[in-house]
Design a protein that fits this description.
Layout (H helix, E strand, L loop, with lengths): L8 H5 L3 H18 L7 E3 L5 H9 L4 E5 L19 E4 L2 E5 L7 E4 L5 H7 L9 H6 L9 H14 L14
Parallel strand pairs: 1-2, 2-5
Antiparallel strand pairs: 3-4, 3-5
Helix pairs in contact: 2-3
Length: about 170
């Protein structure tokens, strides 16, 4: 995990890879103290740069959580990225998959619907990000039908996905 996860590389580390490395090592040490069972080294941030991926590789990190296809508007992170899913990052171009088997896996930070995004031009029409949903006007504090429907779809799909566990017996 990185301190100031939304700060750009330049603001966070003064464009110094050594500063970034030191902060990542310090933060990973804190994470290991709190969660000693956590073995997979994954960093998290909203703004991603080639230098960040290079440093993660040097420090043997395995993942970069924070990728988002069709990210725009809300928080100043505007890029097309790669469509949904996980893929090995090319450290020379953080938006491009590695041509072989890389080291750092790109992990998306929110689920979005590719079909709805394509046909509406707006990825916030289906999102698991509460800010997207609120800003798109899909729900309010009083009207939570969107979240109810999303949860129902999740439960329905657990029957079709061996990697997603259904609720415990006796629970709705």
């Amino acid at each position: 995990m990185m301190s100031s996860c939304n700060a750009p590389f330049e603001e966070e580390a003064g464009s110094s890879k050594e500063v970034l490395k030191r902060r990542l090592e310090e933060d990973w040490s804190l994470l290991q103290e709190a969660f000693p069972w956590a073995a997979t080294k994954v960093a998290a941030r909203g703004k991603i740069y080639n230098e960040v991926i290079e440093v993660l590789e040097e420090l043997d990190f395995e993942g970069m959580w924070g990728y988002c296809y069709e990210q725009f508007w809300w928080d100043g992170i505007t890029h097309k990225g790669i469509p949904w899913g996980s893929w090995y990052v090319n450290s020379g171009s953080f938006k491009v998959p590695h041509s072989g088997r890389g080291q750092v896996v790109a992990c998306e930070w929110t689920a979005r619907d590719l079909h709805a995004t394509y046909h509406t031009g707006s990825p916030v029409i289906y999102s698991t990000d509460p800010n997207d949903v609120l800003r798109a006007g899909l729900c309010t504090g009083e009207n939570i039908d969107y979240w109810k429907h999303l949860f129902d779809e999740y439960l329905f799909n657990t029957d079709h996905n061996g990697q997603v566990f259904p609720p415990a017996a006796g629970r709705p």
